[in-house]
Amino acid sequence: MERARRVFVTFLGTSKYETTVYRLPNAAYAPLPTPYVQEALLDLMDQGVIAFAPDVVLPVLTPEAERDNWRWRKGVEPDPDNPETFGLAPRLEAWVARQRQAGREVRVEPVRVDLAYDDASMWAMFDALYQRMARDGAGEGCEVVVDVTHSYRYQPMLILLLVHLARVVAGTRTAAVYYGSQPRDVDSTSAAAGFATPASSPVKEATLMDLSTLVELQEWILHVYTFLHGANAEGLWSFVKGKGRSVRRATAGAQDPELAHISDIEKLVEAWRTLTQSVQLCRGPALPGAAAESLHRLRQLAARLAGGESVPALQPVYYLLDTVRQQVEPLTAESPYESGLAAVRWCEQHGLAQQAYTMLRELLVTAVCDLLGIRMDVRRDREAAERRLSLGARRFQRRRFAHDPGAAKAGAGPALDDTDGWVEDMAETHPDLFVLWDKLSQARNDVDHGGWGRENTQSPAALRQRLTEYVDEMERILQTLGLLKGGVNDAPLA
């Protein structure tokens, strides 16, 4: 199998670049004095300080950058015999030659763009970069390193959005995003940090920052939004698991604040995943327990934060704790009616109409089990409750059939000798119980059968609208029956 491609994207500017030593914090190495941060980064990759070996280098050039710094170094008299006067292109060519001598096939392909200030030029740049990355670095297992040191105007925002798009659309992983600070005069701290001062003088000094956490922030935002508004924690769970693996590799078993936090977050997101799966698969009896576990894990992490412990890179998770607490707390109610209605409303707000109809219908069965004094968690008893609800619903259907003999002849009507004392009594005192059961059964069957082969199939808009009406009606009925005290707040929980 061909090795996954690794792409290095970098921007060339128009400034006069001075010979600079680029320092990477917390790393010991022999720095290469160079006017070009691109050459410094490639040297760090060759030394293994940066664990990345690009197959393709994509320098992004405007016409002005190509004129000023591509073939020759700006502000220096060109001299073919003096490498100090060379621009970026000859330096990259020398790097390619060294790689080939080491047995690696690499290539440099400039991406020429126009930095005009209009929408057409901006999107042309976006498309040119994405198409080149899609050709050279897209796909699961592919990686990209970006250098934004000399990107300017809207280029930094554009490239961050572009690598995020490549991640979502093609599975391309962003290994790092580097930014070199403004070069400054060399000071005494260089020697203390283990950097040798180059013999040539004057030499500037700059710090390399890895901005990967900003790319991660986009990932956090995407997965957190999907969880909060889509009731799906799978993406967040996978992302946190990957983050945990990378933190453990980086710490190599050492005690580290980030490791302790990521462990707590993993447990929290695992609990969220179980909760959302319980909702998606209509695990009604398991919901309060899953919600309680989520709340417990959330409070554990909140307590750690209250103690003054936090990790900046994990800040996005901290921001959503209170929002999630507001969503989860109603699901932990001991009353099956409070937690059940909260779950139905949660499904309704998150676009899970099928689950909402199913759980709403089952909630009515639970209520009848309660009223009959039979067990709500035993299948035989629930079936008995369903039979009584169906008998009551048929009682009201008869009234329609009395005015529509054709429907009864077609077999749509029930047997007229179906009687039950409890049903007869409830039909007199709480007829809306059976009317709602009939509505819910029809709607649930319509949804479960995909709209096929049924009379009076409803539109998606009608099913959503009526769901809201049925939830309100269920709450009113439960209150009337004395099964629900005070009702459940129907305001959005998010």
Percent of residues in helices: 55-70%
Residue-averaged pLDDT, rounded?
83
CATH architecture of the largest domain: 3-Layer(aba) Sandwich
CATH topology of the largest domain: Rossmann fold
Radius of gyration: 33 Å
Q: Segments where pLDDT lies below 50 for 5+ residues?
A: 188-201, 400-418, 488-494
Overall tally of domains: 3
**How many E strands?**
9
Q: What gross morphology would you assign?
A: elongated
Main sheet characteristics: 9 strands, mixed
The sequence of SSEs as H and E is EEHEHHEEHEHEEHEHHHHHHHHHHHHH
Top-tier CATH class of the largest domain: Alpha Beta
What is the helix tally? 19
In short:
The protein is α/β, with parallel strands linked by helices.
Describe this structure as you would to a colleague:
This protein has 494 residues and is of the alpha/beta class. The chain has three domains: 6-210, Rossmann fold (3-Layer(aba) Sandwich); 213-332, no CATH class; 345-494, no CATH class. Helix content is 56%, strand content 9%. The protein has 19 helices and nine strands. The protein has helices spanning 37-47, 63-69, 88-101, 119-137, 155-170, 189-192, 212-230, 234-251, 257-280, 287-306, 315-319, 321-328, 336-349, 353-372, 379-402, 405-409, 421-429, 431-448, 460-480, and strands at residues 6-11, 20-23, 56-61, 107-108, 111-112, 143-147, 173-180, 184-185, 204-210. Strands 1, 2, 3, 4, 5, 6, 7, 8 and 9 form a nine-stranded mixed sheet that branches. Helix 5 links the parallel strand 6 (143-147) and strand 7. Helix 13 packs antiparallel against helix 14 (353-372), helix 13 (336-349) runs antiparallel to helix 19 (460-480) and helix 15 (379-402) crosses helix 17 (421-429). 33% of the residues are buried. The model is unreliable at 188-201, 400-418 and 488-494 (pLDDT under 50).
